[in-house]
Specification:
Keywords: Lyase, Mitochondrion, Pyridoxal phosphate, Transit peptide. This protein is 43% helix and 13% strand. It is built from 18 helices and 11 strands. It binds pyridoxal-5'-phosphate. Pyridoxal-5'-phosphate binds next to α5, β8 and α12.
Length: 453
């Protein structure tokens, strides 16, 4: 296995490069070339336009928007073109990212939006990533890789379930799944690297995704890149990329920023009016991406994230980590955004779920709540993630008595999570029985075939 930079396909214009900071540096990446990076003053909109001037997985950032009127749930207004439906009753809007792809979660479609074009540009042959047994991220990577003829290797925490359901089933249908004992999984970096080295073999190459992003932002010598690319195309070398758990890298933020830019168009929510955007938070990456988009565009929007998997200290730390990493790649100060200010004040309002609990637990009455909402509005929620954002959007819209602030919920998907709720692990004694049963069946079958013959 060699550690080497892959070639890239993308030509990066010098005006685009002017966005990228030269100050930060990952320990395992090459030094960016300051000479090729002129610093120019950009307006906020120009900054965002240049930041988003890249190839995307989703051909368009468009998504459907549905208005939910609360006191008369039966009268909802699906998929408004013009979203200004005046009503005296409390209402909120749902951004239907759950409809973007049948198998890839809404927020995964956004997180992977900028990632896969770079994976393709770097002629990656294999992607290695990890997640929990019912990881929506692992399933999304598996499906997205298969759609591009790339092999995915998914390291799932714990034991294989007795019956495969939900995202676990999709991961195993589309990707190569390996179950990893919890003690080994605890050191994710080591586990991912070791597996990637194994996939690469003695002649392959392994990179972390952040290296690819860095390389795509700093490449100068495009003709030699192109020659190298041609050489790579003709060989059988494996080029393996590691994507971290939950795709919680800087590149994942770009898709959320693209969504904010889309929603802030004049014919949708516009840039002038106050808006509360509510989202459910696992790693918190989607919420931070929405926050960075809002700050970059200078919008009077607040991002409210419902904490589901960590404490407020954990989320604040993740927010700081992502903002600092973003700043290392993209020069926020060029549009007058001071890092200290946003680190100090934060860009996301992290709030508790209405009924906080250990992650993954479903409380009594929540399936019935999902059932009621599905039957009256046509919107399918899951009790783990999106029900929490729905409840928060409902509360916030009921508080907005003057109706001058719009409340908007981002529906992040999670539909297949519903099918994972019944998952059960095989107990060791059951595993033995099932192996014995299989052997007995094989023996019987052999006997039967003897008789037939
Ligand atoms: C439906 C759904 N919503 C939200 C999240 C959390 O997103 P993030 O990790 O970006 O906070 C997930 C993560 O898997 C999810 O499946």
């Amino acid at each position: 296995m060699k550690l080497q930079r892959f070639p890239t396909l993308a030509a990066i214009s010098s005006s685009k490069r002017s966005l990228y900071s030269i100050s930060g540096q990952l320990p395992h990446t090459r030094q960016p070339q300051p000479q090729g990076i002129p610093k120019v003053k950009l307006s906020r909109e120009e900054f965002v336009a240049a930041l988003l001037d890249r190839r995307w997985t989703l051909p368009k950032p468009d998504t459907k928007i549905q208005q939910i009127i609360l006191s008369s749930k039966k009268v909802t207004h699906p998929f408004l073109e013009m979203i200004e439906k005046e009503s005296q009753e409390p209402s909120f809007y749902v951004v239907r990212d759950d409809l973007l792809h049948p198998l890839v979660n809404g927020n995964k479609s956004r997180k992977l939006d900028a990632l896969f074009p770079l994976v393709e540009d770097h002629l990656v042959t294999d992607v290695v990533t990890c997640g929990g047994c019912q990881s929506a991220h692992a399933a999304a990577v598996a499906v997205s890789c298969a759609e591009r003829g790339i092999k995915s290797h998914l390291l799932l925490r714990g034991e294989q379930p007795e019956i495969q359901t939900g995202y676990n089933l999709i991961s195993s249908l589309y990707g190569n799944v390996t179950y990893i004992p919890r003690s080994v999984y605890a050191d994710r970096t080591k586990m991912l690297k070791r597996h990637a080295d194994y996939v690469a073999g003695s002649s392959g190459h392994v990179l972390w995704f952040d290296d690819i992003l860095e390389a795509s932002l700093t490449q100068n010598n495009l003709s030699s890149e192109s020659a190298q690319k041609k050489a790579f195309k003709d060989d059988n070398t494996r080029r393996v990329v590691i994507v971290s758990e939950g795709a919680g890298d800087v590149v994942a933020l770009l898709g959320s920023i693209r969504l904010v830019q889309y929603l802030s168009q004049d014919h949708l929510f516009g840039k002038e009016k106050a808006l509360k955007l509510v989202v459910d938070a696992g790693t918190g990456t989607t919420a931070v991406g929405l926050g960075i988009g809002t700050i970059c565009l200078g919008l009077p929007w607040e991002i409210t994230a419902v904490m589901l998997a960590d404490t407020i200290e954990g989320y604040r730390q993740q927010e700081k980590h992502l903002i600092s990493n973003f700043k290392r790649h993209f020069d926020l100060e060029s549009i007058g955004i001071g890092l200290d200010d946003i680190l100090e004040n934060g860009i996301v309002d992290w709030v508790e779920r209405h009924n906080p609990r250990k992650f993954g637990n479903v409380l009594k009455g929540e399936i019935e709540a999902c059932q009621d909402i599905a039957q009256t509005t046509g919107v399918l929620l899951d009790p783990m993630y999106t029900l929490s954002a729905w409840e928060m959007a409902t509360t916030l819209s009921q508080k907005e008595t003057k109706r001058d602030t719009k409340v908007v919920m981002l529906h992040t998907g999670g539909t297949l999570g519903m099918f994972g709720l019944a998952q059960r692990s095989i107990k060791p004694e059951e595993l033995l029985c099932s192996h014995l049963g299989l052997w007995l069946r094989v023996l019987k079958w052999e006997k039967a075939t003897h008789i037939i013959h």
